Amino acid sequence: MERTNSCSNTVRRCATPRPTWLPPTDSLPASRRLRRALTALWLPAVILAAGMWLGGSSAGAEGGVPSESAPVRVLVAYHSRRGSTEKMAQAVADGARGVPGVAVTVKRVQETTQEDLQAADGLALGSPTYFAGIAGEMKVLMDDWNWKWKVDFTDKVGGAFATGGGQTGGKEQTVVSLLLFMLNNRMVVAGPLYQDETGEDIWGEIGSSAMTGPLDPGVGDGELDAGRRLGDRVARLAKKLKGRS
Q: pLDDT, tens digit, for every residue of 209-225?
């Protein structure tokens, strides 16, 4: 007898192989079609959201979004011919550096850049007193910050200091002129704080100054202390306004 093929229907029925194709969507139960539709909708959304979250985290680390770990920046800009105003500027910077989380930059006004000014959260300006006012070289540069560079000073914290040869040679007028420049450019201004030995009497002053003429040459310890107090106040207020504790 001739042997038949093992899958011949005359001998036995072959096992029906499992289909490798998926049934048409129309043939699926309604519940499975609904699950497929929901999966197709939420899966891309989840992937997109994850990508946006990762992108935002990366931007924050690179500076696109302010980071809580980024320091508060204080810029001390000054003009000095004989070095007295420079000594006061260093004292202001030392006071600001004493505040945790604050980064300080000290520059002559001639070296100060547009980027320095824009990055600063706090700005302390210092000038020698010439004829009861701001040094002319410094005033020209300050005007350029606004007229040419268009720096936005809004809500930056400002403080001022001055030096002068005489006892009443106009140092306070120079400080006031610097503060008026800041106020006209929408800044918030502050001066140093003092208190008596008991701590009950606390007061503030409009700025810091040093008499450097023949009657009291150089910059004394008390005047350097005034500079440090100014830097401390500007840094603390800038930190507070930036939402740092």
A: 999 988 888 899 999 99
